[in-house]
Amino acid sequence: xxxxxxxxxxxxEVLRVTLEHLWMVVVSIFLAVVVGIPLGILITRWPGLxxxxxxxxxxxxxxPSLALFGFLLPVPWIGARADRxxxxxxxxxALLPLIRNTYAGIKGVxxxxxxxxxxxxxxxxxxxxxxxxxxxxxxIIAGVRVATVICVGLATIAAAIGAGGLGEYIFRGLAMVNNxxxxxxxxxAAALALLADVSLGWxxxxxxxx
Length: 210
Description:
- The protein is mainly α.
- It is 80% helix and 0% strand.
- The model has no long low-confidence stretch (mean pLDDT 91).
């Protein structure tokens, strides 16, 4: 029996773990967007904050995933449930591309366009929402795209702490030395990452200024 026959025969279980995986990724990206994009905007307004904010996000990104799970385990309420722990860890990993791309996108807006808006009497808030963010949107979506692909991949590690997802098959397959089980988790995870990359890539091209 090959891996595709296994997926068909265990359709309900494969669907369950795939939906668990997808749920973790969607919630993590949502939380990362809610925190990361405002932080990216903030450091364009307060230049002295860019190095500490980007540096902290960069440090988080370099921490191995299992080590980060271990650091977060003693945190009250978060450490009580594996899914909360996994979502927080994935959100932290997704912050760097979101903050960096938001910052780079806004800073990359042609200064002459900004000055023209300022000359028309636009406030800083109006410049941000009517000029800078629309022009930076393609770059910001590129950050969301990178963060999503990162989260889809790292969410497989969440099974190591009992958070579920497609990593269940991968870890079970490794323990049993069963390539079929490993592929049953790896193939849907790769398909999700590819789908996210293609979909957000299309959106990025659509929203990039021409």
